[in-house]
Automatic annotation (TrEMBL):
It is a multi-pass membrane protein. Keywords: Cell membrane, Membrane, Transmembrane, Transmembrane helix, Transport. It comes from Candidatus Caccousia avicola. Residues 61-252 form the ABC transmembrane type-1 domain. The lineage of its organism: Bacteria, Bacillati, Bacillota, Clostridia, Eubacteriales. This is ABC transporter permease. Signal peptide: none annotated.
Length: 269
């Protein structure tokens, strides 16, 4: 009885979470005008065709993807280095740094956005430049960094700390030891952190809104459309983004599953 109730409860939760996405996907193929978007009028690809003809929307999408890729790569590199440094700390220093790392995630995003905007404006006035693509990338790296660190730290904790030293005893340089020993051990955490940083950057609105300057990202562009009416093209675009993220997660999970089976076979041998 308890198992049946728990399964029903879990099913309802998943329905509540994914029903809106399912409706969005279905209505992205709806052949209707912009005045009656919630009425099914037949299957059509018209909104996908119009999507690839909307120059401003595609420009906002391009900016968003460039920012997300740069932010994910920057946060992954800095987060990996920071996680290794934090993992080597002991006692109260490690606790202090971890509390400082967790603070940006607990801090309201509106506070982070306003504070980053003030910093970017100060720096821009100091050097005589304007806010734009660079300011958004730096802001996104800043708020994505803690998530990458927390994704990599558990993998470092699971790794044998003597492997790195053993590799150097066998003739590897410190840099070669890092890439040959440490990186393979924490690679799953690095990939998880990078995907999370990419997703967070792709989805962010508040920080992008305050730090965008003259550059328009997709969330900011969609927000500007809500002042009038949101075009069904957004349904088509959201469906494509959801499909890309879903395929990416499936590839990562399949890869990690194969790596886990390979490690189990090697352990059995």
């Amino acid at each position: 009885m308890k198992k049946a109730v728990s399964r029903v409860y879990l099913t309802l939760i998943y329905i509540f979470l994914y029903a809106p996405i399912l409706l969005l996907v279905v209505f992205s193929f709806n052949d209707t005008d912009t005045k009656s978007r919630t009425v099914w009028s037949g299957f059509s690809l018209r909104w996908y065709e119009m999507l690839f003809q909307d120059r401003m929307l595609l420009e906002a999408l391009k900016n968003t993807l460039i920012i997300a890729v740069c932010a994910a790569l920057g946060a992954t590199v800095l987060g990996t280095v920071a996680a290794i440094g934090i993992n080597s700390m002991k006692g109260w220093r490690k606790k202090l740094v971890m509390n400082v790392t967790n603070l940006p995630m607990l801090n309201p995003e509106i506070v982070t956005g306003v504070s980053l905007m003030l910093l970017m404006v100060f720096v821009a006035n100091l050097f005589g430049i304007s806010l734009g693509m660079g300011s958004i990338i730096l802001a996104h790296i800043t708020f994505c960094l803690p998530y990458v660190i927390l994704s990599i730290l558990p993998k470092l904790g699971q790794m044998d700390p003597h492997l790195y030293e053993a590799a150097q005893d066998l003739g590897c340089t410190p840099l070669r030891s890092f890439f040959k020993v440490v990186m393979p051990e924490i690679m799953s955490g690095v990939i998880t952190g990078m995907v999370m940083a990419f997703t967070l950057s792709l989805d962010d609105f508040i920080i992008s809104y305050f730090c965008s300057g003259t550059t328009q990202t997709l969330p900011v562009y969609i927000y500007s459309m809500t002042k009038k009416r949101v075009s069904p093209e957004i349904n088509a675009l959201s469906t494509l983004l959801f499909a890309v993220i879903l395929v990416l997660l499936l590839i990562i999970n399949i890869r990690q599953g194969r790596m886990g089976k390979k490690e189990e076979k090697e352990a059995d041998v």
